[in-house]
Amino acid sequence: MEEKMGWCSWGIRLLSLFAMVCTVSGIGANWGTQSTHPLPSDTVVKLLRENGIQKVKLFDANYDNLRALGRSGIEVMVGIPNDMLASLANSLKAAEKWVQKNVSTHISNNNVNIRYVAVGNEPFLETYNGTYLQTTLPALVNIQSALIKAGLSNQVRVTVPLNADVYASSSTLPSGGDFRTDIHELMTSIVKFLSENGGPFTVNIYPFISLYSDANFPAEYAFFDGNASPLNDGGNLYYNMFDANHDTLVYALQKIGYGNLPIIVGEIGWPTDGDRNANLELARRFNQGFMNHISVGKGTPMRPGPIDAYLFSLIDEDAKSIAPGNFERHWGILTFDGLPKYSLNLGTTNSGALVPAKGVQYLEKKWCVMNPKAKLDDPQVAPSVSYACGRADCTSLGYETSCGNLDALGNISYAFNSYYQRNNQRDEACKFPNLSIITKKDPSVGSCRFETMIQPYYAGAERRFGSLSIVSFLILILLTAL
Predict the structure, then answer these.
(1) Looking at the whole model, is its pTM more than 0.85?
(2) I need a labelling partner for 321 at 20 to 30 A (CA). Which of 6, 332, 336, 411 fits?
(3) What is the dihedral of CA 277, 283, 289, 294, to 10 degrees?
(4) Is 267 annotated as catalytic?
(5) Is 220 annotated in the active site?
């Protein structure tokens, strides 16, 4: 590795064209699976390989996905969901069974290149109200013990992906960084354990969330263009939020005596829809800016050198919870069917562009829309839209979203079609009382795409999800339009 990085440093001075290729060839991506119609696992692995993505982070241990990753050479971080932490914390035997089934078997039988086990996913979010405070560390300890017993502890490391809210600065400068008071002792114990067992600190950093949640956040500071006024911290200049946030963590680690613990950026990205600041141009600007920023291997003021990072995320997920915001279903650099959303050069393909999924099978090109003969003031309109959106995905509707310019007829049609497509174009899914009709004329307009669904992939397409809390939101749109 040192020899390779030395060559890259020399190459940077000679040919900037190769800088991104040689230092960011290991860029990772998160592969989420909360989709009603997931792409086949083999298709996704082919996507990863053709786009030169050499690392993937999973949120569970889905057998088909791990099997498909076999013999691909792609480094895998396999995840343990939060709802499994209690059982693994309370039983070493349960941890040993989990490792045997989800790690050992895949390594030995399928040649999957598993390098990390992610124990939980942001378990200390303040919104969880302490649910996982008592189980995360014990689960981490038991998984490590299970890896040791399986003879894999030198090959597979443990980590805990944490949200950046586990630390903060007392002075608004990175040097004031320290772990949250309520979990300070726990974080110290976890960091100590990771250090003793060769595990990295995995952190998820989201400048978009700062912009979304704080109207006074300086927007330019979220990006990497150098347009923001720098933050001067004892001579270290911070021109963007990522570097400042990252180094706030470094200072927090230093304060507890582990300033050299390796750091992985487990999630970083920008959504493309569902909010006024979530669009294609800003997502391209952020993700390309991030790639350019880390491509030269400069690192941050407190951590010079290459940055180990996983983009969030590879593909949109239409069944994710929208509790944090409607943007949650639109983080992908690719659409649900594997198409690039915008121009993005990861520095890993010969073309300098994202490669789309190949061989994707779609349902028939037909859509469910509002019958032109129906009346907007029909009393069945509101409950029908409520029903459709509650069981499908209407997060592209709203102020300054991709479908924000639709009229009332368009909004209703979008809701009907979303439900129709999610239900595999079954005839009964387009029988809203005297309101709907099936058409073969694509109703997409401008930036608003009326989707045709991909063909179901085994049982995943038949799952049903609970009602979503966006009904009042859409009814408000309709009333405004009316």
Answers:
(1) yes
(2) 411
(3) 120
(4) yes
(5) no
